[in-house]
């Protein structure tokens, strides 16, 4: 039913080509053609008069567009809130209105449809290449895609639980036992201003030699565009008691950082200098 308009409609819904869909505000140039919606009528030969049936289709496409705009606006507002709050504040925010979590994830899923590759799928593959007996904690699991796609025991953690298997809490303070997990995953979820507390919690629940896997939006680690220096970030994680095993910058959209927990914590009590991680603000299209 949407044929013939899909291209324009898609762009009209606020999504551009993937390379540009997820960039911090300060780093993207904003070009916009706002005239598109005027031309939504299906193309009908040389006549400028639209065919009879197109007026209702025009108005529904206009309404669709307005709804998408509104949803996009809500999504960006919630997204910004999550990047500029502590985990505790974010938990309170969603507790007051859990519907905001649904709005956020509708927008998030929409954004993800424009990514050529999802980091969570790479992590799923990484896990599938290893023993399924490894116990996993997915910090900021979203729709728990990770747990649904591997045989491992996965503790899925997020601010709101849409599924009985998801533990609802602020991930700086989980109910997981210390040294109980083999792999801690943060897939696009280091959102809070106190992200170091999230990583400290992962350190606590990980067994010695356990893995810490971090996937983050690339622009957040692009020092040329106001992002953090990945080496500084990595150094801070290592000072907490990890060794850096692999840094993968090959993907256009995200970086993947793999760490292993040391057998012994080396620098307890030492003040760690964490670089600021810029919010990833989604542009209005
Ligand atoms: N990891 C999933 C979802 C990423 S979206 C994926 O790759 O698809 C980021 C998720 O992190 C959101 O669901 C958000 O609610 C969650 N999140 C952000 N801060 C959090 C916190 N302090 N505690 C728990 N979850 C958090």
UniProtKB/TrEMBL annotation:
InterPro entries: RRP8, RRP8_N, SAM-dependent_MTases_sf
Region (Disordered): 1-61
GO function terms (MF aspect): methyltransferase activity
Compositional bias (Low complexity): 44-61
Subcellular location per the Swiss-Prot or TrEMBL entry: Nucleus, Nucleolus
UniProt-listed Enzyme Commission number(s): 2.1.1.-
Entry keywords, A to Z: Chromatin regulator, Methyltransferase, Nucleus, Repressor, rRNA processing, S-adenosyl-L-methionine, Transcription, Transcription regulation, Transferase
GO biological process, one term: rRNA processing
Keyword Nucleus: yes
Gene3D superfamilies, A to Z: Ribosomal RNA-processing protein 8, N-terminal domain, Vaccinia Virus protein VP39
Transmembrane segments: none
Superkingdom of the organism of origin: Eukaryota
Ligase recorded as keyword: no
Pfam family, one: Methyltransf_8
Stated family: Belongs to the methyltransferase superfamily. RRP8 family.
Role: Probable methyltransferase required to silence rDNA.
Protein's recorded name: Ribosomal RNA-processing protein 8
Source species taxonomy: Eukaryota, Viridiplantae, Streptophyta, Embryophyta, Tracheophyta
């Amino acid at each position: 039913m949407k044929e013939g308009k899909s291209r324009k409609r898609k762009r009209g819904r606020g999504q551009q080509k993937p390379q540009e869909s997820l960039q911090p505000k300060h780093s993207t140039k904003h070009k916009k053609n706002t005239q598109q919606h005027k031309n939504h009528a299906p193309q009908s030969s040389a006549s400028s008069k639209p065919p009879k049936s197109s007026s209702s289709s025009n108005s529904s496409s206009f309404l669709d567009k307005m709804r998408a705009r509104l949803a996009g606006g809500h999504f960006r507002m919630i997204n910004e809130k999550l990047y500029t709050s502590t985990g505790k504040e974010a938990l309170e925010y969603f507790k007051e209105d859990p519907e905001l979590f649904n709005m956020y994830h509708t927008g998030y899923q929409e954004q993800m449809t424009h990514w050529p590759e999802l980091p969570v799928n790479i992590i799923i593959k990484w896990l599938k290449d290893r023993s399924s007996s490894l116990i996993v904690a997915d910090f900021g699991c979203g729709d728990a895609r990770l747990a649904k796609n591997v045989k491992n025991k996965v503790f899925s953690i997020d601010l709101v639980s849409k599924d009985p298997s998801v533990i609802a809490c602020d991930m700086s303070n989980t109910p997981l036992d210390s040294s109980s997990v083999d792999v801690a995953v943060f897939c696009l979820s280091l959102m809070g201003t106190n992200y170091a507390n999230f990583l400290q919690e992962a350190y606590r629940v990980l067994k010695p030699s356990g893995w810490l896997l971090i996937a983050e939006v690339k622009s957040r680690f692009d020092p040329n565009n106001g992002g953090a220096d990945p080496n500084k970030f990595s150094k801070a994680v290592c000072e907490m008691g990890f060794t850096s095993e692999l840094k993968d910058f090959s993907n256009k959209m995200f970086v993947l950082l793999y760490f292993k927990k040391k057998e012994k914590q080396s620098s307890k009590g030492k003040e760690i200098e964490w670089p600021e991680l810029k919010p990833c603000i989604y542009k209005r299209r």
